[in-house]
């Protein structure tokens, strides 16, 4: 049975046709205590859902929909390690990666917590050697730069967190810079290799399958770069200049990664959920292992809230439900993530993968084609940049867009120089003022400012664009961990309601297969006749252009 046939879904459609389709937010804000009604808080995250186009009655029906979809039972199945990834027949246990050492979780006869902390301990040893200046390259010089070679979840998560937590580099540590190369065209790596020192550079090969062509091609180039400059035995170079992070120890060993330099994670960790595992090694190098553990602890605090809070008070559930309302009832298919903190510049891209790879599905768990919308298009930018780029469309365009505004409450409090601190705190106030002002204008339109006269049409703002505002006490490892876990669990809840598998990504696989076949045709000049007319024409243009170069 489609979810559209459930009693709760049909009740929501009645709410929609009974006036909610066209009701304006300025009308909804005539209700008393609206902020108090729709504000929630947990794990250092303050969530304001009052600027969404819903009422307490709509919320109640959405909770009923979640109950009909058996969301409470699904939450427990996820956290217990049951096989919620149906097409791959395995758990999705990223929450186990942040369980404290004293926790107990046995999954299918395996002590998961023990395995996780064994890897964390090995990771701590490697990080300690680097930050104490004890990891030396093949010529005996201490490592000064680490380049993470990964793509997708092996790149986006570590890149986002190291950028967000740059203020938390450990004091008095040997300085080790972190860099990221993900593009298969070699452009990022070529830039780094133009100025890095091969004697003091360490590469991390991060790949769940250890078969990702993007990562292995970058690794091959990096190996040739060091070998051509240092000479010597490639086996020795791999021992001193390469670390592997994967679920496949045999493949890492086959490539030449020393077992002492191998960090493992597990098939039950999805790539886009893997920054909490050894994939987070660049994070730990950047901020130190203590802060990495604080990141895990913040996520675990949100896990516990998710596990124990009633649906009406549960931040991930409520965030998921308003998304269901926007996508499936208000027909809002575009969702912008707008952080008002420059340190979160990579957050929209990270959430883009998290949501669109997880819930960009059109077939249910019952193998039926969905007859409703699933994941919206996720996009975004740092808020102040967006104001000068695409907010024009948000305010006066024809597209309905739901927005998430994110900002820290406190910043720069620890700056010692009083005058400098006052200047920076004034800038932070300016950012907060813009964040709140933009969401207010999106909500109220022209009514945000009272005027004696009616402005011309080109100066009118219709308002009624829904938004959520998330504040966190400050941007630190714990609150960032909680924020990421909040979105992870939101995605899961929506997947449960839509009856889709949020943990597979089969849509990615065919493109990889065809790309491998196409690369062989380009390289060998054989098999062109098997392709379509457009592909043949494009490849012939490449051949002609490369012959003339």
From TrEMBL:
Q: Where in the cell is it found?
A: Cytoplasm
Which pathway or pathways does this protein act in? Answer: Carbohydrate degradation; glycolysis; D-glyceraldehyde 3-phosphate and glycerone phosphate from D-glucose: step 2/4; Carbohydrate biosynthesis; gluconeogenesis
**Keyword Nucleotide-binding carried by entry:** no
- The organism's place on the tree of life at top rank: Bacteria
General function of this protein? Catalyzes the reversible isomerization of glucose-6-phosphate to fructose-6-phosphate.
The record, for HAMAP family, names:
G6P_isomerase
Indicate the family of this protein.
Answer: Belongs to the GPI family.
**Protein name, entry field:** Glucose-6-phosphate isomerase
Q: Specify the species.
A: Salinicola endophyticus
């Amino acid at each position: 049975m489609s979810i559209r046939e459930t009693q709760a879904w049909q009740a929501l459609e009645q709410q929609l046709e009974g006036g909610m389709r066209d009701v304006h937010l300025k009308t909804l804000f005539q209700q008393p205590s609206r902020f108090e009604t729709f504000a929630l808080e947990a794990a250092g995250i303050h969530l304001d859902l009052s600027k969404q186009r819903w009422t307490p009655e709509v919320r109640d029906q959405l909770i009923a929909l979640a109950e009909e979809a058996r969301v409470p039972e699904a939450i427990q199945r996820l956290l217990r390690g049951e096989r919620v990834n149906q097409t791959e027949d395995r758990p999705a246990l990223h929450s186990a990666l942040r369980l404290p050492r004293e926790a107990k979780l046995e999954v299918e006869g395996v002590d998961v917590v023990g395995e996780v902390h064994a890897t964390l301990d090995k990771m701590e040893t490697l990080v300690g050697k680097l930050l104490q200046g004890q990891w030396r390259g093949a010529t005996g010089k201490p490592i000064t730069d680490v380049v993470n070679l990964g793509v997708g979840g092996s790149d986006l998560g570590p890149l986002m967190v190291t950028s967000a937590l740059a203020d938390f580099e450990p004091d008095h540590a040997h300085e080790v810079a972190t860099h990221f190369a993900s593009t298969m065209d070699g452009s990022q790596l070529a830039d780094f290799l133009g100025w890095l020192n091969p004697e003091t550079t360490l590469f991390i090969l991060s790949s769940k399958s250890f078969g990702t062509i993007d990562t292995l091609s970058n690794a091959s180039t990096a190996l040739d770069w060091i070998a051509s400059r240092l000479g010597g035995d490639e086996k020795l170079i791999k021992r001193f200049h390469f670390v592997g992070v994967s679920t496949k120890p045999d493949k890492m060993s086959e490539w030449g990664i020393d077992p002492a330099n191998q960090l493992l994670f597990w098939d039950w960790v999805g790539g886009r959920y893997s920054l909490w595992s050894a994939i987070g090694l660049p994070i730990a190098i950047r901020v130190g292992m203590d802060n990495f553990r604080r990141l895990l602890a913040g996520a675990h605090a949100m896990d516990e809230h998710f596990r124990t809070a009633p649906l009406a008070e549960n931040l991930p559930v409520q965030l998921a439900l308003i998304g269901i309302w926007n996508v499936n009832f208000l027909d809002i298919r575009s969702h912008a993530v707008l952080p008002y903190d420059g340190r979160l510049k990579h957050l929209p891209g990270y959430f883009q993968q998290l949501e669109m790879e997880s819930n960009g599905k059109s077939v249910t768990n019952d193998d039926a084609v969905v007859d409703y919308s699933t994941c919206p298009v996720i996009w975004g930018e740092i808020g102040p940049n967006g104001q000068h780029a695409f907010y024009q469309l948000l305010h006066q365009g024809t597209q309905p867009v739901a927005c998430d505004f994110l900002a820290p409450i406190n910043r720069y409090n620890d700056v010692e120089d009083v005058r400098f601190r006052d200047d920076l705190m004034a800038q932070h106030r300016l950012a907060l003022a813009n964040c709140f002002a933009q969401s207010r204008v999106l909500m109220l339109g022209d009514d945000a400012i009272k005027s004696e006269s009616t402005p011309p049409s080109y100066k009118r703002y219709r308002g009624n664009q829904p938004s959520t505002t998330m504040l966190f006490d400050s941007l630190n490892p714990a609150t960032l961990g909680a924020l990421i876990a909040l979105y992870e669990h939101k995605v899961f809840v929506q997947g449960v309601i839509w009856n889709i598998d949020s943990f597979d990504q089969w849509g990615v696989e065919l493109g990889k297969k065809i790309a491998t076949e196409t690369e062989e045709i380009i390289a060998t000049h054989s098999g062109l006749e098997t392709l379509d007319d457009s592909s043949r024409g494009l490849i012939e243009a490449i051949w002609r252009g490369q012959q003339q170069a």
